[in-house]
Specification:
Blueprint: E1 4-9, H1 17-30, E2 35-40, H2 42-47, H3 53-70, E3 77-81, H4 86-95, H5 101-106, H6 108-116, H7 118-121, H8 130-133, H9 135-145, E4 150-152, H10 158-175, E5 183-185, H11 215-223, H12 244-251, H13 257-266, H14 271-298, H15 300-328
Parallel strand pairs: 1-2, 2-3, 4-5
Helix pairs in contact: 3-14, 4-9, 4-15, 9-10, 11-14, 12-14
This protein binds adenosine-5'-triphosphate and magnesium ion.
């Protein structure tokens, strides 16, 4: 029997290079060998966008278009919408008894995200909501509803996955062996940095190159990327390790990577030339993705049908898990 993959993406914006190299490029490969479920996590997106439902709604289809454009094949994989699977919300309630508040507050990802969202949650996180602090619990419900064995994610997700594993162990130890304990699966580029040098390129951080950015936007963004501040003149030697342009050359596996590095160190290449070459490398990767996306942009009804069909298939699986869970907790009254 094939093993199962469950992973998700929040409809808070389109896909960027961080998602692509950090996670979703892997999904395309993995779908060949695994029973694959890709969740568009609108319920989770609402935890910190509850005041902006239009944004979440609009990005559900945009994310689906991006996933299809990079090569997720709806005949092999299931793409579905989280809010249309009420069993996930139901599981969340039962799992929430198995997690302490202090454990959730200690979660490093939650801590970082609260500190990044001062406008919403206050300078010291004093305004953080129950729903936001609890989203790792609902993420555990996402994964276990599909009995996911493997969860291909970026590095920022590891503490959330650990939380899920703890819930599974606690559930199974109290109610008997019911849930599957998942494992994380990281890409080679497990945390892609932002254009501004920030540790993470993020949709909500404004430092991303999106897969469907126009060539013009890509040019502008790359031209503004941070290079070695000690390189003043074109022929000054520089340190590629502190240069975001070299960092992205490496990420997108530009041709002649070694030459770029050596020339940079020797002061034999100017930053403008180097940026132009990077723009070309990025365009070579993104042009075919944009081309494929165009078909889905022009035919949104095809995208919506893929989502609804996928969600229907996914719900059947989640219903089966829900049955097992209710039996284990002894609340299977209608059996
Ligand atoms: P948001 O800011 O709304 O949380 P996000 O950019 O973090 O958006 P998610 O939808 O939360 O995107 O993440 C989807 C997947 O992409 C996750 O597996 C996450 O780990 C991965 N991912 C996101 N950003 C990066 C990054 N910069 N490097 C590596 N992986 C990433
Ligand atoms: Mg995120």
């Amino acid at each position: 029997m094939k093993k199962t993959i469950l992973t998700g993406i929040r409809p808070t914006g389109r896909l960027h290079l961080g998602h692509y190299y950090g996670a979703t490029k892997n999904w395309v490969t993995l779908q060949e060998d695994y029973d694959s479920y890709f969740e568009i996590a609108d319920v989770q997106a609402l935890t910190d966008n509850f005041n902006n439902p239009d944004k979440v709604r609009a990005n559900v289809r945009e994310i689906a278009i991006d996933l299809l454009a990079i090569g997720i094949n709806p005949n092999k994989s299931t793409i579905f919408i989280q809010s249309m699977i009420p069993e996930i919300a139901e599981l969340t309630i039962f799992y929430s008894n198995l997690v302490t508040m202090s454990r959730l507050y200690r979660n490093p990802t939650i801590k970082t995200e609260i500190s990044q969202k001062k406008a919403l949650f206050g300078n010291n996180g004093e305004g953080v909501t129950y729903g936001f602090v609890g989203y790792p619990v609902s993420q555990a419900a996402d994964i276990t509803a599909f009995k996911g064995n493997l969860v291909p994610v970026g590095e920022d997700q590891l503490p959330l996955l650990e939380q899920c594993r703890e819930i599974v162990r606690k559930f199974n130890s109290i109610y008997g062996d019911t849930l599957v304990e998942p494992e994380a699966f990281l890409s080679k580029s497990k945390r892609v940095k932002g254009l501004d040098g920030n540790e993470k390129m993020g949709k909500s951080l404004g430092n991303a190159i999106y897969l469907r950015d126009s060539q013009e936007d890509i040019s502008k963004k790359v031209m503004s990327a941070v290079t070695d501040p000690n390189k003043i003149k074109k022929d000054d030697p520089a340190n590629p390790d502190v240069c975001m342009v070299y960092y992205y050359h490496n990420l997108v596996e530009s041709d002649n990577l070694n030459t770029i590095c050596e020339e940079c160190k020797k002061g034999a290449r100017g930053c403008v030339q180097c940026k132009k070459e990077l723009i070309n490398s990025i365009n070579k990767i993104l042009d075919p993705i944009k081309e494929k996306a165009k078909y889905y942009e022009d035919n949104p009804e095809v995208v919506d049908k893929i989502l609804l069909d996928g969600t229907k298939r996914a719900r059947e699986v989640a219903k089966r898990t829900m049955k097992n869970v209710k039996k284990a907790i002894k609340i299977d009254y209608d059996e």
